Amino acid sequence: MPYIDSAYIKARVDDTTLKNLTKERGGADAIDEAVIAAKIADAQSIVDSKIAKRYTTPVTSPSDRLKQLTFDIALYNIYRIHKTHKMDEEVKFSYEQALRDLTRIEDGKSDLVGVSELTSSPNKVLAYVTTKTTDLKMSKSVLNNYR
Question: InterPro entries from the entry (predicted)?
Answer without folding.
Answer: Phage_Mu_GpJ
